[in-house]
């Protein structure tokens, strides 16, 4: 545990890399599989988090602005389901932009506990929220929220409301989503409310455009994984030798991102050599698209009841309120 203080916000900098698989282990395992793949959480180093913020501004990437509009319209109703003195626990908080919509509408929130794997993004967001909401106790946790975790002590004794916007839950496989939801239910506790943003199924062209924008920002975000392996694991990936691909997989109801090898090549990374055939892909992300009914079933399998929903028609997106 490494701790430091700034502006009154104490960050518990957990050495996440010390537990479970490290980046190097996950890379060796993922590149050794018949279908090469990497966990999407590795997108979010400082550069990747910056590129993701840029994606959220793109004309083609509708989820962010659609969800922000949805939360704005539903803010008063959302505030009514947040108890007095509540602790708002956010999973994968990033820049905490959507949080402000909730905090502005619900001054009864006493504690804000953002959890994010990107230390830089978390530190900046915690600092900014701390300055703009001086009455709020900010208790950030630099943590991979896919692992078992404990809430910060500042949350103890407060009614808990979970917040997981952005349809980040769509980046899990259904099994991972169930196990995340089950873990979140245990973590947040009996009676907790959980606000979750889910991207909904829509025409294929809109979905693919959102993951293959004209400016190439999503391509840069995808290829940053290669650059990150070069930076951190002594890799020699030639970024020009891979093409960004986004595909709609209708059978699985998900957009897939891949990096396709433009030629046969051997790449060194993490002390190993991996062969890529021409046209072979490294599968880097799934982004599942839901129906509200389908998501309610998934949540029910993890012990949550869907209590309310706020949905937009075009582009289709929903924020749901689950109850433990
Ligand atoms: C964070 N997550 C919900 C994004 C998504 O839409 O699946 C990540 C992303 N990948 C490409 N563009 C955005």
UniProtKB/TrEMBL annotation:
Record has Iron as a keyword: yes
Keyword set includes Oxidoreductase: yes
One term of GO molecular function: L-histidine N(alpha)-methyltransferase activity
GO biological process: ergothioneine biosynthetic process; methylation
Residue ranges of domain Histidine-specific methyltransferase SAM-dependent in the record: 23-323
Keyword field: Iron, Methyltransferase, Oxidoreductase, Transferase
The name this protein goes by in its record: L-histidine N(Alpha)-methyltransferase
Gene encoding the protein: egtD
């Amino acid at each position: 545990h490494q701790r430091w203080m700034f502006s009154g916000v104490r960050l518990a900098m957990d050495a996440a890399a010390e537990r479970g698989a490290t980046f190097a282990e996950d890379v060796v395992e993922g590149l050794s599989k018949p279908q090469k793949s990497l966990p999407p959480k590795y997108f979010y180093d400082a550069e990747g988090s910056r590129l993701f913020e840029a994606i959220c501004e793109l004309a083609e990437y509708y989820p962010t602005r659609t969800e922000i509009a949805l939360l704005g319209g539903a803010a008063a109703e959302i505030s009514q389901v947040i108890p007095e003195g509540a602790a708002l626990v956010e999973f994968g908080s990033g820049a905490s932009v959507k949080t402000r919509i909730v905090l502005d509408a619900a001054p009864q929130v006493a504690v804000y506990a953002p959890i994010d794997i990107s230390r830089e993004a978390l530190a900046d967001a915690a600092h900014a929220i701390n300055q703009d909401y001086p009455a709020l106790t900010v208790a950030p946790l630099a943590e991979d929220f896919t692992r078992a975790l404990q809430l910060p002590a500042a949350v103890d004794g407060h009614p808990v409301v979970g917040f997981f916007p952005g349809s980040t839950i769509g980046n899990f496989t259904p099994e991972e989503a169930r196990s995340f939801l089950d873990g979140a239910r245990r973590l947040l506790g009996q009676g907790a409310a959980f606000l979750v943003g889910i991207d909904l199924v829509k025409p294929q062209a809109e979905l693919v455009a959102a993951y293959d924008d004209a400016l190439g920002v999503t391509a840069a975000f995808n290829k940053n994984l290669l650059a990150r392996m070069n930076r951190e694991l002594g890799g020699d990936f030639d970024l020009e030798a891979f093409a960004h691909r986004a595909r709609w997989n209708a059978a699985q109801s998900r957009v897939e991102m891949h990096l396709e090898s433009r030629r046969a090549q051997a790449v060194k990374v993490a002390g190993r050599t991996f062969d890529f055939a021409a046209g072979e892909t490294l599968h880097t992300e799934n982004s599942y698209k839901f129906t509200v009914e389908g998501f309610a079933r998934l949540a029910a399998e993890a012990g949550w009841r869907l209590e309310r929903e706020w949905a937009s028609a075009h582009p289709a997106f929903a924020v749901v309120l689950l109850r433990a």
